[in-house]
Amino acid sequence: MTVIRPDEALAQAYDGITAAVDGLDDAGLQRTTRCQGWLIADLLLHVLGDAQRALVALASPVDGPADVDDVSYWRDFPGGDDNATRHAWWVRRSAAAFDRPTGIVRLWQETAPAVVRAAASADPEGYVTTQGHVLRVPDFLATLNTEAVVHHLDLTVDLPDAPPPGPLAVRIAVATMDGLLSDDTVRPTAWDDHDFLLKATGRVPLTERDRLELGESAGWFPLLG
Questions:
Q1: In the beta sheet, which residues pair with residue 127?
Q2: Can you say whether the dihedral through the CA atoms of 218, 133, 203, 112 is positive or negative?
Q3: At CA 13, angle to CA 41 and CA 98, rounded to 5?
Q4: Which of left, alpha, beta for 192 (phi over 0: left; psi -120 to 50: alpha)?
Q5: Residue spans of alpha helices (H) in the chain
Q6: Are 66 and 140 in contact (CB under 8 A)?
Q7: Rounded Cα–Cα distance for residues 59 and 64 (Å)
Q8: What angle do CA 84, 85, 89 make, to 5 degrees?
Q9: Cβ contacts of residue 2 below 8 Å, gap of 6+?
Q10: N or C: which end of the chain has fewer CB within 10 A?
């Protein structure tokens, strides 16, 4: 299997979001998403926050060792807690402070390419700190990628003509979900990669057939929120 460069996957992930929102007017940016209570503009601002956090982290390398990798990092973010609820409310109010929703798109279009350039030039043997953890640079980029791919699927639920996330980006996100599962779990045969990501993150509920195929591993779902 070809080794995926994390910076190339992240470029696909961010380019995919850009393509999904490019050309949307203010009304289009107020369509719904899979994230409860969030419009497209709200969710884009949330992903923009990740991009801005990435710029800070990549410009501020630290000494190792890492205390989490691209999989274990997510175990601190199961979703559904009070902090997540407060963050969701903060994002909605912050997005509403923009004069027009398209202002968020312009800021995203300026920021995302800068992150991609910083990722490409970062030392792959280096370390960064974010969210109270130290990660290897490739693992950090993988966490950004996974979040971007899942939110790309969230963004486009009401945009049937939007392009899907890029294949390299999806492979990184799927590998993350595989890592969060127990080693003996076999993914249900009817799931494609997008099904897996949506069900692993609780966007789409498990069916009875899913639970039968997953067995005891069904209790692990959602793997992250």
A1: 62, 136
A2: negative
A3: 20
A4: beta
A5: 6-21, 40-58, 82-96, 102-121, 137-155, 167-180, 193-200, 208-214
A6: no
A7: 15
A8: 115
A9: none
A10: N
User: Which residues contact residue 165 at a Cβ distance below 8 angstroms, ignoring those fewer than 6 apart?
Assistant: 12, 13, 16, 148, 149, 152, 153, 173
Write the single-letter amino acid at 201. Answer: T
Domains and CATH numbers, the chain: 6-169 (1.20.120.450)
The model's pLDDT over 42-95, given as tens digits with 9 standing for 90+, comes to 999 999 999 999 999 999 999 999 999 999 999 876 555 667 788 888 998 999
Q: What is the reported pTM? A: 0.94
Q: Is the peptide bond before 205 cis (omega within 30 degrees of 0)?
A: no
Tell me the β-bridge partners of 76.
Answer: none
Residues 74-108 as b or e (16 or more Cβ within 10 Å = b): beeeeeeeeeeeeeeeebbeebeebeebbbbbebb
Run of H or E including 134: strand 133-136
